[in-house]
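Tutorial handout. Part one gives the primary structure; part two gives the three-dimensional structure as tokens.
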Amino acid sequence: MIFLNSMSRPAGDPRLIEAGPSSFGSADRLARDLGWFSIGLGLVELFAAEKITGALGMRGNENLVRAFGVREVASGIMTLSVDRQAGLQSRIVGDALDIATLATAMRPDNRKRGNAALALLLVAGVTFLDLIAKGAIAARHRRENGKVRSYSDRSGFPQGIEAARYASHKKLQDKEDISAGAGSGTKSGDNAT
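Part two.
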């Protein structure tokens, strides 16, 4: 990667010797991967609802599976967005709905109960990953001692608004004083006696 970056630069530009650490941490990678997984699973649920319900012994619930697919795609998009926490939270709520729905397939008269149990186990594993990712993202964006950053008392002007209001006028005046002092051989503010 460094080679490609250096190759595309003109000869006079500085060379990139080594890349620094990324601000994209392992929690962000896990959230991103879960987002893509959610989108993929949602598309499968949308377009293969009949096969899914047949494999789980839940015929007649195709529209429910499609609705879950739409939810998965939306959760995946939110998880890939800037607000990863909201996306991960929606995935966890969706996982709870999936577990509740799959639990109904565990009835004794369902001949595909083994498939439903496997699906239930897989959903539980993904729920565990969602919980880990949500906790890691929350910890990454939390301040020490659990305090949330507040900048409400800051104006953006280190010396106050009044000083900023007259800053350009003061710079111009200082510049004129320096050039006037250079012409007389003394610096502005020097007392010639």
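Part three, for discussion. The two ends are 67 Å apart (CA to CA). The chain is about 65% helix and 0% strand.
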